[in-house]
Amino acid sequence: MTDPLVSAYEAREPEYAALRDAALAHTTRLTAEAGLKIHHITGRLKKPASLADKLRRKPGRYRTLQDVTDLVAVRVITYFESDVAAVSRLLEEHHEINWDHSVDKSMMHDPDRFGYMGVHYVVKVPPEVPSFAGHVHDPPQHYEIQIRSILQHAWAEIEHDLGYKSREAVPREVQRRFYRLAGLLEIADEEFMSLHRLSRDYAATLPERVRSEPDSVFIDAQSIHHLLGVSPVRDLDEAVAAALGVPLLTRWPDPERPQRIATLLHYVGVHSVGGLLGELRRNRADILNFAARLMPRLPEAWLPAGGARPGTVLVNHALYRACANPSLDPREIITALDMSGVLSTARLVDSVLETYAEVTGAVTADPRHS
C-alpha cells in the first residue's frame, strides 16, 4: 500500500521540480557573483521510491511533506576543502538556516568518526527564489544544500555505492581500512590546498622576481603569461606587428598559448627568464628581421587571426634558434604550436630555413630541407 505522503509528493512533483530549478539557479548566481571557483553545482529531486524507503525506515517521524526537508537538494562541489568553508559562509549570509536539521561546519568530529562528509544545510526558501504562495496549498518551505570538495564527494559516492550507511553496518575487518582511507583523503585534500596556495603565491610574486632576479625564474606557462604583457616581449611583439602593418592582438583568446611557447623555448634550450631576456636583447635586430621576412611568406598561418598574436617574437626567436642549431628540428616547434592542418609541415619548414639563410647569408644548403 502506498504511503499517503508518497502519493501527495507524486501529485506535487512538478512543483518541487520547479523549486529545484529555482534553487539551483539561485545558488549558481550567488557563487558566481561572489567570484568563487566551483567545480560544479547540481540540483536533485528526491525519487518517490527513496521517499517511501525513508518513511519505512523512520515510521511516525514525518507527518507532512513539510517535515521532509530533503525532497529538493542542491549540491555544490568545490575544488578544495577550504572552498567548502567559503561557500558555507556565503550561504549563511543569504539564507535562513534550519540548524536543527543541518550539519554545522564548525562541529568537530571524533578522530575515529566513520565517513568523510561535507556540509549539509537545510535552508528556508529565500525571497529571491520564486514563491509558490497563492498558486498551491502549503508551498514548500525548505530545501537542502550540500557542500563538498571533490575528494569528499568521491568518498561519499563510493561509500554510498558500497552500501554502508553507518559504522555498525561495516564489518570490523573493513572498518580499519575505511579509517585509513579517510585519513589519506584528508591528507590529499590538504596537499591540494597547499599546492593551490603555492601556485597563487608564485603568481603574486612573479612580477617582482622577474624584475629583480630573472635568472631564478623558470620558463613555464605562468612566467610566459606574465612576459607577454610587459617589456621587452610586448615591445618586440609591437615592433613585429608594426613591420607587418597589422595590429597586435593583445586580447587574443588562447589560454594554452603560454604553455605552448614555454614548451618550444625549452626545446631550443631556453629555460630561465633571465636567459630569455638576455637573448632577446642581444639578438633583437636579427629576430625582428627574421620575423618580418618569414611571416609574409606564411600568411595562411597567422593572417586569418587579423594581426600578430602575443608572443609572436618568442615563436620567431625559437625558430631562429632551431635553425641555428643543426641538431634541432623546426618540425618540433611547428608541432608544439599546433599548426598542423594550416599548411603542410614541409612548406613551413622550408620557409623557415630559407628565411634563416637569407637573414644570415648562409650559402650552404641546409640538409633539413624537404
CATH class of the largest domain: Alpha Beta
Q: Count of helices? A: 15
Report strand %. Answer: 5-15%
Overall helicity: 40-55%
**What is the domain total for the residues?**
2
What strand order characterises the main sheet?
1-2-4-3
* C-alpha end-to-end distance: 81 Å
Q: Which runs of at least 5 residues are low in confidence (pLDDT < 50)?
A: 111-115
Alpha-beta classification: alpha+beta
What series of H and E elements makes up the topology? HHEHEHEEHHHHHHHHHHH
Just name the CATH architecture of the largest domain.
2-Layer Sandwich
> What coarse outline follows from CA principal-axis ratios?
elongated
Kindly state the mean pLDDT as a whole number?
A: 85
Q: CATH H level of the largest domain: which superfamily?
A: Beta Polymerase, domain 2
Total number of strands: 4
Largest sheet at a glance?
A: 4 strands, mixed
Radius of gyration from the alpha-carbon trace, in angstroms:
30 Å
CATH third-tier fold name of the largest domain: Beta Polymerase, domain 2
Pfam family, one: RelA_SpoT
Organism: Deinococcus aerophilus
Domain RelA/SpoT: 43-170
Protein name: GTP pyrophosphokinase
Report what the structure shows.
- With 370 residues, the chain is of the alpha+beta class.
- It folds into 2 domains: 186 residues, Beta Polymerase, domain 2 (2-Layer Sandwich), CATH 3.30.460; 147 residues, no CATH class.
- It is built from 15 helices and 4 strands.
- A 4-stranded mixed beta sheet has the order 1-2-4-3.
- α1 runs antiparallel to α3 and α11 crosses α13.
